[in-house]
Amino acid sequence: MSTLTITVSKPKRKVIDTTDYSIGNMKKELLWVQRTQAKKAFQDTMEQLKKCCTSLHLSQKCDPRLGVQNANPGTERYNLLPKQGGDNLKAIVSLLGDNVIQAEVTIKNPKVAGGFFRSVAQPDVQWKLQQLQDLGNHIARATISLCEMENNLNARCESDSDSFSVETGTLLLNEARAIKDEISFARSSILLPRKRSLLELCYFPPTRKFVPPLPQDNLLSFYISSCRLVCASYQIVPKTVNPQGLTVFMSECQLPFLDEVLESLNLAMLSLQKLISYLDMCRPPITANLS
């Protein structure tokens, strides 16, 4: 007796494609970020950079729309001491903005009478700390871009609600990243040391302005590192004393105004990074149908 086998196939479940739905939501979120978050992020960033411009006296460099009051920098005098104690090198440096206007040094040197060489430089040539100049330039460029973006956002917010799009989101993202890069460069200029080579120091005009002149086997360098003003003395010595033929003494001091600038730059970067993360997260895939 044959057996009849009946096979019943289950109806296939309808698969719902959620891709279009997800992309639509991402687009809505992207527009919301542009309308509500972008302007606040740029304003918060500008507020922090305005503090930097005021502290660094950048009213002539930064965007005038920032409203930084004109003020001339005053002379600040700093006492630089050896980091690990001792008396190998001491210096007193007077700064006017990003210019060194006077430097007094006392260097331990067994070749001179008394064992210490003392000299003063009050150069009649421009003696700028390049790192402070770079700091101001990067901040100034960031303020110009920020003010332009704020004007652009204000114009769009005052027009109809369709003035924001995926394309404007991409524009905002690119601008935010570019401004963040400028701020990052500004931070690096006062955190990372930038030293001249020994050959550059030999021909650096202010080096020749010390009275009495520096010994022929001695060079001096001034630079910024981790918001500190550093003075380094390079002395050529016999290789029996040092295999490298060079002895380096250093003295330094903290620059409080740079600590404040760094704090403001950090807060500015946080505001921009938050906006960048929002915009990047809400961007629909490039291959998506954005119509």
Explain how this protein is built.
Belongs to the rogdi family. This is Protein rogdi homolog. One of its GO terms (cellular component) is RAVE complex. The chain is built from 6 helices and 8 strands. The chain is elongated, with a radius of gyration of 30 Å. With 291 residues, it is of the alpha+beta class. The protein has an 8-stranded antiparallel sheet with strand order 5-4-3-2-1-8-7-6. It has 2 domains: 19-71 and 137-191 and 260-282; 75-130 and 194-255, no CATH class. Helix 3 packs antiparallel against helix 4.
How much strand? 15-25%
The average pLDDT value, as a whole number, equals: 87
Number of helices: 6
Query: Helix- and strand-based class?
Result: alpha+beta
> Helicity, in percent?
40-55%
Q: Characterize the main sheet.
A: 8 strands, antiparallel
Number of domains: 2
One letter per element, helices H and strands E, the order comes to HHEEEEHHHEEEEH
- Radius of gyration from CA coordinates: 30 Å
Instruction: Tell me the distance between the termini.
Output: 65 Å
Instruction: Please tell me what the overall shape is.
Output: elongated
Report strand order across the widest sheet.
5-4-3-2-1-8-7-6
Number of strands: 8
Low-confidence stretches: 8-18, 287-291
Protein name: Protein rogdi homolog
InterPro entries: RAVE2/Rogdi (IPR028241)
Organism: Caenorhabditis auriculariae
Family: Belongs to the rogdi family.
